[in-house]
Amino acid sequence: MQDSFAILSDAEKLLSPEDFNPLLGKLQSIRKKYKSTYFHAHENNVGGKVDWTKLTQVTGSATYHKLRKLKNVELLNKRKFIEVENQISALASLQCSSFKVDILDKNVTCTKCGFPKGFKNENPDFQISRLDEKVRSIYEDWENTLLAELENYRGNLQYLSPDERTLIEVVIRSSHLPESIEDSLVIALNNLFRELEIVEVTPTLFLESVFKESQVMDYRTFDDRIKKIMQKLVTGKDLSKVRIKLAQQE
Ligand SMILES: [Zn+2]
Prior knowledge:
single chain; mainly alpha; 2 domains; two-stranded parallel sheet; 2 strands; 61% helix; 4% strand; elongated; binds zinc ion
């Protein structure tokens, strides 16, 4: 299309008015054909004939929202989803509405989007339905991965806060992720999947360390002693991975 238009404009420049006149009808007919072809290609591929609502249905779907939240679960592999997000934004950026055929009187292509610039020569409706399928399949994949990992990390459940544990136990019991994913669940999952460092504290050692030197003290001394014990226990450890555990009574 673009080539034929380029030849057409060259022809207009090269021909003298006498030569041009007999050809005028033919040229006009080629121009008309080009305009019509371009207009339809534009409308079918990036313009009003594309069902753009289908794309907003994909990005507005509960599944897509859940993926956007789950993306923050460190254990999951995000590569495929990031690809989908990029493809969605690339496709959405092609959308060009209110194109008028008259623009082609003075321009070879649409002045707004320059179609076919950036267009991958693939039917957008087809691209949208493929993205929709990808979103569903990534969700299925992530859900299965998480359910399997919940089993693998079951032993870590005891180190979560009671609220976090409840959230995870609901997922384990139902064998499904909830209808909507809240940040609190994402945090609980990240905490569960952390390679935790368990620091055990025995009550005897704890009490002895605090009260060894004196059994009565002011608050500041009490506070200092506890801090000193804790520092000794966690020294050299990654504090975000440390969980303090009450040791079995010796
Ligand atoms: Zn356009």
